[in-house]
Amino acid sequence: MSHVALPPNLLPADGRFGCGPSKIRPAQLKALAQSGWSVLGTSHRQAPVKNLVGSVREHLGELFTLPEGYEIIVGNGGSTAFWDAAAFGLIEHRAQNLVFGEFGGKFAAAAAAPWLTAPDVRKAEPGTRAVAEAVEGVDVYAWPHNETSTGVSAPIARVHGDEGALTVIDATSAAGGIDFSLAEADVYYFAPQKNLGSDGGLWFAAVSPAAIDRIERIAASDRYIPEFLSLKNALDNSRLNQTLNTPAVSTLFLLEEQLTWMLSNGGLAWADARTHESSDALYEWAEASSFATPFVANPADRSPVVVTIDFDESIDASNIAKSLRANGVVDTEPYRKLGRNQLRVATFVSIEPDDVRQLIRCIDYTLKNL
Ligand SMILES: *Cc1c(COP(=O)(O)O)cnc(C)c1O
């Protein structure tokens, strides 16, 4: 297929619209090149890297306005490792997992570990969302704040089930892009390669006192827990601003740059307004168009950070994505397993709202000329 050459005046200043790994701002990369030498290639057991971990933990706490007694913990392996760590060290007997896309489904699969009671899985069709319901004997209620595979976001509200039951939120693509109240969750975990504009490989979690109690209690029980997946180990190391084994120092550095940028601009409220400005531009364009519609039918469920747009069958969305890619406007393809005639666009906080408006002009131009 030949592509449509986009006129330079329509091109976004930065053509990265992927949902993860996602755009890292040039200023962060410049800072890494200029002063990364002070930490990259140095011992993670010495002050410079430990101070960096400490600063990241402090700034995450500031961004999320940590309630009394909450702590930020960190470990290696990204959010996928956290799912297994949770199966070993956070779920006591049984989880309830809301599944409305790939990522919620992956945690449900991890929660089906043989030492636990089979999870109570509440499934909803892609493009809609499931709702938690208090069930006796469930001690972890889990769902994604933002389901990256479909562009559905769900509110964060504590489930008042059995005493001590924990609300555990996968915030990988939401953290830093959607405002919320952390007091409504016990565990809010994420990897930093999405709104937090860094690279992959680490997981972070804001944990409540009840979650810390749970982690301590399970660790003290006779359950077998591998060292690498031990949340107790992560908790103890995090308090010393360390990780069990070597962390990706550049990921920490880039994250710290992003956090100071976000906090200096106004923190989570500012970020939330910015992602809404970008995503609203796309949703309004699709609503007004005769050939495109927002995939998520209920406006209340539409994600402000991952926008999914379905196209009329007379148009092959994959040709639009391919043509955009040939112009350096990349990663607008839909989630690979969703299999829809769709474009998916990240409107994370690092992405300029002006660039989103340029992207819309690029799509219109491509469609007219394809
Ligand atoms: C990207 C993503 C993940 C996976 O993160 P990894 O760090 O690659 O394991 C998990 N959950 C959600 C909601 C995501 O968007």
UniProtKB/TrEMBL annotation:
<dbReference type="InterPro" id="IPR000192">
    <property type="entry name" value="Aminotrans_V_dom"/>
</dbReference>
<feature type="domain" description="Aminotransferase class V">
    <location>
        <begin position="41"/>
        <end position="329"/>
    </location>
</feature>
<dbReference type="InterPro" id="IPR015422">
    <property type="entry name" value="PyrdxlP-dep_Trfase_small"/>
</dbReference>
<dbReference type="GO" id="GO:0004648">
    <property type="term" value="F:O-phospho-L-serine:2-oxoglutarate aminotransferase activity"/>
</dbReference>
<keyword id="KW-0028">Amino-acid biosynthesis</keyword>
<keyword id="KW-0663">Pyridoxal phosphate</keyword>
<dbReference type="InterPro" id="IPR015421">
    <property type="entry name" value="PyrdxlP-dep_Trfase_major"/>
</dbReference>
<keyword id="KW-0032">Aminotransferase</keyword>
<keyword id="KW-0718">Serine biosynthesis</keyword>
<comment type="similarity">
    <text>Belongs to the class-V pyridoxal-phosphate-dependent aminotransferase family. SerC subfamily.</text>
</comment>
<comment type="function">
    <text>Catalyzes the reversible conversion of 3-phosphohydroxypyruvate to phosphoserine and of 3-hydroxy-2-oxo-4-phosphonooxybutanoate to phosphohydroxythreonine.</text>
</comment>
<keyword id="KW-0963">Cytoplasm</keyword>
<dbReference type="InterPro" id="IPR015424">
    <property type="entry name" value="PyrdxlP-dep_Trfase"/>
</dbReference>
<dbReference type="GO" id="GO:0008453">
    <property type="term" value="F:alanine-glyoxylate transaminase activity"/>
</dbReference>
<keyword id="KW-0664">Pyridoxine biosynthesis</keyword>
<dbReference type="InterPro" id="IPR022278">
    <property type="entry name" value="Pser_aminoTfrase"/>
</dbReference>
<keyword id="KW-0808">Transferase</keyword>
<dbReference type="GO" id="GO:0004760">
    <property type="term" value="F:L-serine-pyruvate transaminase activity"/>
</dbReference>
<comment type="pathway">
    <text>Amino-acid biosynthesis; L-serine biosynthesis; L-serine from 3-phospho-D-glycerate: step 2/3.</text>
</comment>
<protein>
    <recommendedName>
        <fullName>phosphoserine transaminase</fullName>
        <ecNumber>2.6.1.52</ecNumber>
    </recommendedName>
</protein>
<dbReference type="InterPro" id="IPR006272">
    <property type="entry name" value="Pser_aminoTfrase_mycobac"/>
</dbReference>
<dbReference type="GO" id="GO:0006564">
    <property type="term" value="P:L-serine biosynthetic process"/>
</dbReference>
<dbReference type="GO" id="GO:0008615">
    <property type="term" value="P:pyridoxine biosynthetic process"/>
</dbReference>
<dbReference type="Pfam" id="PF00266">
    <property type="entry name" value="Aminotran_5"/>
</dbReference>
<dbReference type="GO" id="GO:0019265">
    <property type="term" value="P:glycine biosynthetic process, by transamination of glyoxylate"/>
</dbReference>
